[in-house]
């Protein structure tokens, strides 16, 4: 690689890091305890994901305009695999793929996950009329699980290739951990998603607890929460809690210099789920989060573990 190419690549990774530092509210804390080359790679993948998500979620554009923008961006990314590009995100991602053996197929699945919400009716989704609005509800938990795989587990499969592993059991554990993270996100974002016309608590779960989409929307507008609503949320939360056990089994299978980063990420997300479990009604009023002071405390432990791993690992 020439000096000019090396400088361009360094600038590309710096641009991706700036995006991650600005946007990755939880992920960036874990990036900071990785070795530099792995941290750079994680920032590149995050910037790629962030761009795809932003195109998909930009409500300043019509749905059709978002589909066209996503199609154009995806085509440009695919072209960048074989033709020199000046796009810093594509440049950094291409280098990350080469460095860590991340296949095109994994990134294609990642893009497919971000475009699900651009489809008029994604596979496994029911459209229900609620007071004249079309509300998307996943028909079964199995269909919801597949959604979680595409939007979160694929990210996990990419991440463990950067983190490093040799035991193939790590792949299923990464898939399960990704689902745990996404179920946590779903609970955190239940009010915001409902206001956008999406309910990610599946229809079979709603029926099991005798909760209707209409009632969930009413709660986001201030209607009282009933015991069956809390039972629904508790069941969803317990499913996520059980899946976090996979994260505990995954961490020892990763390269020693990456384990502290994964611990930081898991502890922050698990802490978020525990905060939701402590006061589930809060998710209908506000976006629940882990205080920055607690994140910094978790990060500090991660930094110490990272230093120890590099010195004695």
Main traits of this protein?
single chain; 313 residues; mainly alpha; Farnesyl Diphosphate Synthase; 2 domains; 3-stranded mixed β-sheet; 14 helices; 3 strands
The main sheet comes to:
3 strands, mixed
> Can you tell me the residue ranges where pLDDT is under 50 for at least 5 consecutive residues?
none
Count of the separate structural domains = 2
Distance linking N and C termini: 31 Å
CATH architecture of the largest domain: Orthogonal Bundle
Query: What oligomeric state is this?
Result: single chain
Number of strands: 3
Describe this structure as you would to a colleague.
The protein is globular, with a radius of gyration of 20 Å. The two termini are 31 Å apart. It has 313 residues and is mostly helical. A 3-stranded mixed β-sheet has the order 1-2-3. The longest helix has 24 residues, at 227-250. It is built from 14 helices and 3 strands. The model has no long low-confidence stretch (mean pLDDT 90). It folds into 2 domains: 1-102, no CATH class; 120-313, Farnesyl Diphosphate Synthase (Orthogonal Bundle), CATH 1.10.600.10. The chain has helices at residues 3-23, 27-31, 36-57, 63-80, 88-100, 104-114, 141-163, 169-188, 190-195, 203-208, 213-220, 227-250, 259-278, 292-312; strands spanning 125-130, 133-138, 198-199. Helix 3 (36-57) packs across helix 5 and helix 13 packs antiparallel against helix 14 (292-312).
Give me the secondary-structure topology.
Blueprint: H1 3-23, H2 27-31, H3 36-57, H4 63-80, H5 88-100, H6 104-114, E1 125-130, E2 133-138, H7 141-163, H8 169-188, H9 190-195, E3 198-199, H10 203-208, H11 213-220, H12 227-250, H13 259-278, H14 292-312
Parallel strand pairs: 2-3
Antiparallel strand pairs: 1-2
Helix pairs in contact: 1-3, 1-5, 3-4, 3-5, 3-7, 6-7, 7-8, 8-12, 8-13, 12-13, 13-14
